[in-house]
Amino acid sequence: MFKRLALLSATFMFVLAAGAQETKKFMLVIHGGAGTINRKNMTPEREREYRAALEQALRTGQAVLARGGSSLDAVEATVRFMEDSPLFNAGKGAVFTHEGRNELDAAIMDGKTRKAGSVAGVTIIKNPISAARAVMEKSKHVMMAGRGAELFATKMGLEIVDPSYFWTERRWKALQDELLKEQQPQASLVTADENRFGTVGAVALDQSGNLAAATSTGGTTNKMYGRIGDSPIIGAGTYADNETCAVSATGAGEFFIRWTVSYDIAALMKYRGLSVQEAADQVVNKTLKAVPGAEGGVIALDRNGNFATPFNSEGMYRGWIGVDGVPHVEIYRD
Amino acid sequence: MFKRLALLSATFMFVLAAGAQETKKFMLVIHGGAGTINRKNMTPEREREYRAALEQALRTGQAVLARGGSSLDAVEATVRFMEDSPLFNAGKGAVFTHEGRNELDAAIMDGKTRKAGSVAGVTIIKNPISAARAVMEKSKHVMMAGRGAELFATKMGLEIVDPSYFWTERRWKALQDELLKEQQPQASLVTADENRFGTVGAVALDQSGNLAAATSTGGTTNKMYGRIGDSPIIGAGTYADNETCAVSATGAGEFFIRWTVSYDIAALMKYRGLSVQEAADQVVNKTLKAVPGAEGGVIALDRNGNFATPFNSEGMYRGWIGVDGVPHVEIYRD
């Protein structure tokens, strides 16, 4: 009897070990925007909604990685989920331009090949991140904007929607507040400042050791018609190469463009030998922190699964999930 | 008599010395595109035209710098001159998209403040570089595309032209050749490959020690409607900060975006301590050279007036001019 149990136990251990060998390390890190996000501005109900959506986003990408899928597939699936959620400033739930339109930007980058794709100022593509991927994989270009990008996405068979699909009452009110503010700068309007900007993003490491990054956004409330932010700019809001790291940024985009934020983190790792945590911290909490208005944060992940989620704003919606399948979500600084 | 001559001579020397003290070091470096530019493809007449235009462009910017003007004013004036010349792929003389349109991109960056402005996919602005400067100085944004950028430029009082202004027979023929090539890949058409891409750019150091960079382009012949290249992307085709260098790039833009070429040169100077020549050479002749198709070059200038003009293509239209006012122009590798 004891012998049999020992044999059974040994067999069981063997199966476990074999299983563990097959599942190599993988990691997914996400953000849902940074800004004036604090407990004072948050209702318990809204916090629950955000936590649930972030956890679901993490599980969506984790499922791809757990079955051996690519980091590209994982970040695309994760960002698509957040684009479809009205909670985040990307896809459905995007903020409005000054003229009351939704103009969407997105980018994706493959750390293995350093291939990249992005779209800017698109208004009828349900999931801009998938359009960015189509630009990367099915065109000879990296970046496409406006009507040209929309015609390409349509030809590629991506889901097209009426611009009204992106309308949400919360973002429409945020624009009206901003417009009123412009006219009455002295008025003390209760504006949810967290609405001014926001972005969603994901970085992933897959079981083959490849990194990828994806970012999608509606930009900033009250932005001018035609404005392009940092999200669709490779090296600014989105970057990935296996040699260094995968990065997705969120914040006051104009500063993130001028400081080439995402690639600066990679350059500090490559040329100064900094860890991903040190490099991301230096760019967000030293370089950008010293520039008035350069508010925001990043998620950054290296090839060994080390990651950082620094932000210099009050809060940042963020989370991560690994092989154990347990989603971790954080919102505030403390 | 001898005494009088000596006195006169001494006075003359004093005046010269005082003049020299007042005029501090300044420098202007330009490019007019890189590609398959060699003596075999060039007629003596065309070479004379290019040399004359490049010299005139240099003198245009030098005049600004010599009278104590800013590097920003110098690079804008220089690029405007090249945009107005039908010889270069920028402004008048821009290449055509697949659909037979001219979609123009441009960017400018101020090394002192790290402020930047850019426009992409504009079709009616006579001088896109001035629109980029208006975005930098008169909007809250860095990058604007398409119709939104055009409306902004119109409101700012910039010169608007009919799209037909940009039409040139030479570029139209280049598009027809490319379209034919697509249909008959085996046909041995005599296409001027130098027409495929091209860009104009200028980097300058002014007497106050401030750097600036400007780039303008029509993109690549036969590009898709809506495609954005590296020129208007800060950190890819255009970059400047006083701490490191000013850079303007020209080449196969998609690669220059993926390799964040302009900022990579700055990062090598900042984080590795390389000189501007070493950094520019490493990025163009090592990093990009190792990537099939990543053809092109850059001009890069540091705060001490040191500069580099590396290219990994057959040729690059380029030139420089300093305090002595003598324009230097080169086209080929040897």
Reconstruct the topology from this structure.
The structure is a homodimer of 334-residue chains.
Chain A lengths: L1 H21 L4 E9 L8 H23 L4 H14 L19 E7 L5 E7 L5 H11 L4 E3 H10 L13 H15 L16 E6 L5 E7 L9 E2 L9 E3 L4 E7 L1 H6 L2 H12 L3 H13 L7 E7 L4 E2 L6 E8 L5 E5 L2
Parallel strand pairs in A: 3-4
Antiparallel strand pairs in A: 1-5, 1-12, 2-3, 2-6, 5-6, 8-9, 9-10, 10-11, 12-13
Helix pairs in contact in A: 2-3, 3-4, 8-9
CATH topology of chain A: Glutamine Phosphoribosylpyrophosphate, subunit 1, domain 1
* Rg of chain A, alpha carbons: 20 Å
Q: Uncertain runs of chain A with pLDDT below 50, 5 residues or more?
A: 14-20, 188-192
Strand order of the largest sheet of chain A: 4-3-2-6-5-1-12-13
Count of β-strands of chain A = 13
- Total helices of chain A: the number is 9
Q: Assembly type of the shown chains?
A: homodimer
Instruction: Work out the count of structural domains of chain A.
Output: 1
How does the major sheet of chain A shape up? 8 strands, mixed
By CATH reckoning, the class of chain A would read: Alpha Beta
Largest interface: A-B, 43 and 43 residues
Strand fraction of chain A equals 15-25%
Secondary-structure class of chain A: alpha+beta
N- to C-terminal separation of chain A? 55 Å
- Topology pattern of chain A, helix = H, strand = E: HEHHEEHEHHEEEEEHHHEEEE
